[in-house]
Specification:
The structure holds two protein chains of two kinds. By secondary structure, chain A is α/β, with parallel strands linked by helices. Chain A has one domain: 3-Layer(aba) Sandwich (Rossmann fold). Chain A is built from eleven helices and eight strands. The model of chain A has no long low-confidence stretch (mean pLDDT 90). By secondary structure, chain B is mainly β. Chain B has two helices and eleven strands. The N and C termini of chain B lie far apart (44 Å). Classes of the chains: A alpha/beta, B mainly beta. At the A-B interface, helix 1 and helix 6 of A face helix 1, strand 2, strand 3, strand 4 and strand 5 of B. Chain B: This is Outer membrane protein beta-barrel domain-containing protein. Chain A: This is Alpha/beta hydrolase. Chain A: It holds the Pfam family Abhydrolase_1.
């Protein structure tokens, strides 16, 4: 038995190296852990805008008032906004698109975003929105309404400030912040973790199971999706879309565009309220009662930049609930939005 | 996948069978007077989360070299204490000594679990580390560097995930390796009779030598009791 310890150690070492690749399944293979994007799955609805293939679709009469739905993130997708599709049955042309690198749209490497320089927000997001409107608009006289939620509301505000005469109506739901410092304040309040809490552990513990390089999108997207899927602070409970849901469930968090956008924001300190004082049409400003990071005082501060506004507090729902909860949408939000558009 | 599962069972059985004979933690190799054959240890710190751990180790002699073999279990803080854990089995061996300077190596097999609303992950991995230190009877300090590899991982997604995020997500064993992290840093401690108090502070870097985990520090306060 003198050699027993050697035998034990040998067994340990042999065991450690005995995992072999008999039948590989890769974490970074498209479709395994995160859904395929439009450049990987031609069956998905897509359009080409500014050199990117975007996941996009539109509903309703082609020539009627255009409502462009702009999702949150950066890096989110439009799936949770699909209740707005019912506006098509009320005579509007409703447009959805996943921003470049977000959702099911084509991904780009991080250095592509960073290479856009000091004017990156303009080149990446405003030009893209302009391209979307250009793609779907059938006549110069066709009215354009922007409907943005969270980051989408920030983007819609920035675009309306830059092109105040190209936008006929602006609906913003809980823009986190408009000046960069406000953006950072909102992020820190809406994503704060308790030191001993499950949420912190859920976010950090997974890093010993999966690691991804800067442009290993599938791995990074998957991990980002796990972290962002729950946030009790903002009061979201998961989308309820009813018959507005498509026949596939496929959401993706664009981790690379998200990280690149924050880094660009830190570098360039964008002000999404720039020029919005030139926008004189009425703005519908919506915020929710269940988002603990968006109290009345924050809503008052964020809405103060709009000259002409109607403020609406969505009672009983959270950050995305004014759009992603079918009951609330049908009974409260959709009538409110239709009334707003008619008032313009 | 069948062959992989059989291998996994073999590995688990192997380690469970020999679990009283393998592993280690921060050890004062210089404190020989009170160094019994058994060592219990408790740790508190950060290790991809706020974690607490317990371990048992047994000392054997491999020719001229003392080896601590044993196991460690740690769990992170959170509302659901048993949903995540890390279990290590392995050995730590003294390789060379020059006066009070000492080189040791650690090799451990890992099984670990992660669970949240979306997924349950179960992973087999390995942890290799080397330590160079200066060891006196009552105190010690050293530098450690190592590599923690997530060799093969089983994914099982929840119904919630399939209903809300992605309905065609693929469950099952994923290999080759799903991740790996290097770590390096300082460790040191004091020894009072049968008890060692140790502190370890290490930086973590992902295997691309560029990216960092969300919590890029391993910090650990440990207490060893030898008998």
């Amino acid at each position: 038995m003198k050699n027993t310890p050697i035998i034990y150690l040998t067994l340990i070492i042999v065991s450690l190296f005995s995992f072999s690749c008999t039948e590989n399944r890769y974490v970074d293979e498209p479709g395994n852990l995160v859904p395929k994007t439009v450049d990987q799955d031609v069956a998905l609805p897509s359009i080409s805008v500014n050199g990117a293939l975007l996941h996009s679709e539109a509903f309703g009469p082609r020539d009627s008032t255009l409502i462009v739905c702009i999702h949150g993130g950066p890096g989110g997708d439009y799936r949770y906004m699909l209740n707005c599709k019912s506006l098509a049955t009320k005579g509007f042309r409703v447009v959805f698109y996943d921003q470049r690198g977000s959702g099911l749209s084509q991904r780009f490497p991080k250095n592509w975003y960073k290479s856009q320089g000091s004017n990156a927000i303009n080149k990446i997001f405003y030009d893209e929105l302009k391209g979307i409107i250009y793609h779907y608009r059938t006549a110069a006289s066709q009215k354009v309404i922007l409907l943005g939620q969270s980051w989408g509301a920030m983007l819609a505000t920035g675009y309306s400030g830059k092109y105040p005469h190209d936008v006929d109506g602006l609906i913003v739901a809980e823009p986190g912040g408009l000046e960069w410092q406000d953006v950072m304040d909102y992020i820190s309040r809406s994503r704060s973790f308790k030191l001993w809490g499950e949420a912190l552990n859920d976010a950090t513990y997974i890093d010993q199971f999966m690691t991804g390089k800067e442009n290993q999108h599938e791995i990074l997207d998957y991990k980002a999706g796990l972290i962002s899927s729950t946030n009790t602070i903002v009061g979201d409970v998961g989308a309820k879309l009813g018959s507005n849901a498509p026949n596939y469930v496929a959401s993706r968090s664009g981790a690379v565009v998200n990280a690149a956008s924050y880094e660009l924001g830190q570098d360039t300190k964008p002000d999404f309220s720039a020029g919005i004082n030139q926008f004189t049409k009425k703005v519908l400003f919506i915020y929710s009662s269940k988002n603990k990071a968006y109290p009345d005082i924050w809503a008052a501060k964020m809405s103060s930049v709009y000259n002409n506004k109607e403020i609406f507090k969505a009672e009983g729902v959270g950050h995305s609930g004014m759009l992603d909860q079918i009951d609330f949408w049908t009974t409260i939000m959709e009538p409110k939005i239709i009334a707003y558009i008619k008032s313009l | 996948m069948k062959r992989l599962t059989i291998k996994s069972i073999f590995i688990i059985a192997n380690f469970v069978f020999f679990q009283n004979r393998i592993a280690a933690q921060v050890i004062n190799w210089g404190n020989q007077n009170y160094q019994g054959r058994h060592l219990l240890n408790a740790t508190l710190g950060t290790d991809y989360g706020i974690t607490a751990g317990l371990g048992y180790h047994y000392r054997i002699s491999l020719r001229k070299f003392p080896v601590w073999i044993g196991s460690e279990l740690s769990i992170p803080a959170g509302n659901e204490l048993a949903d995540d854990y890390k279990f290590k089995l392995g050995a730590q061996i003294r390789i060379a000594t020059i006066h009070h300077f000492l080189l040791s190596a650690r090799i451990q097999a890992i099984s670990r679990r992660y669970h949240n609303q979306s997924v349950r992950l179960f992973n087999f991995g390995s942890d290799f580390a080397g330590t160079i230190g200066y060891y006196q009877k009552r105190w010690f300090m050293g530098v450690e560097t190592g590599f923690d590899k997530a060799i093969v991982t089983n994914f099982k997604h929840s119904e919630w995930y399939r209903k809300n995020i992605y309905n065609e997500v693929q469950d099952g064993w994923y290999e080759p390796a799903t991740g790996g992290n290097f770590y390096y840093g300082l460790q040191g401690g004091l020894s009072i009779k049968k008890v060692d108090f140790s502190i370890k502070v290490e930086k973590v870097l992902q295997q691309d030598f560029k990216s960092k985990p969300l919590l890029p520090l391993i910090g650990q306060f440990g207490v060893n009791f030898k008998f």
